[in-house]
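Lab notebook: predicted structure, single chain.

Context: the supervisor wants predicted structures on file for every construct in the current expression panel, including those that have not yet been purified. This is the next one on the list. No modifications to the sequence; it matches the entry in the shared construct table.
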Amino acid sequence: MTLFADHLTLSYQSNTIVPDVSLAINHDEITCIVGANGCGKSTLLKALAGILRPSRGEVRLNETSLSRWSRKALAKELAFLPQDPIAPEGISVFQLVSHGRFAHQGLLGKVSEKDIEAVEMALKQTGMTAYRDRPFNSLSGGERQRGWIALCIAQQAKILILDEPTTYLDIGHQYEVLSLLKKINRQHKTTIIMVLHDINQASQFSDRIVTMQDGKVIADDSPINTINEEMMNRVFGVKVEMQMHRDGEKIYPVAIPLCAGQ
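Prediction complete. Output recorded below exactly as produced.
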């Protein structure tokens, strides 16, 4: 399953945000897009998900432009979780997650045994089975985020695209969500593309980091080859001290910001 951006120009009305970006997403990997606020990260992500139509260029999935995919066919291959999804008032966790099955249902939208099995499996994988009958909006922030991820899992797409999935979560729930995504990637070979603000979390949990500045990709490599003092100063305007950490077999860099004058 190959997702490829070919010379994308992305604009809102007459304002060009991303002037010319080409990018190939590697199968089965976790790719994090990082950069300062306003650099075009979320804009690029929406184009990769088929939400934003490019002014020029195209995004191709399996060599076919996203513009030529039907909504249902694309949903079977690609799931997108925006930064601030909104659930209908009063909907239960099970009902919310069931919405991930729309692409697999017929014209009448009849729920099959296969749909129910997929929803139950998604709840189990995200640790949400005990919450299945709870009103979704009664859950904590971390629980709601796991619910949204369960919806994406129930969709059974091969590519999962997330825009800042840890926003508004405390640090414990941030790591809970990122660990869940890593588990999904490793166990089910789901390709994951996400925008993260925390550069050290991106370093720890991703296989590849795409760094953006002023709408352009200025670096695209593994965390150990991307995150360094020069990059942190250039992109974020902060001086750092670099340390190397280990997570299992993975060695990754961690940037420690220095106080002014150091």
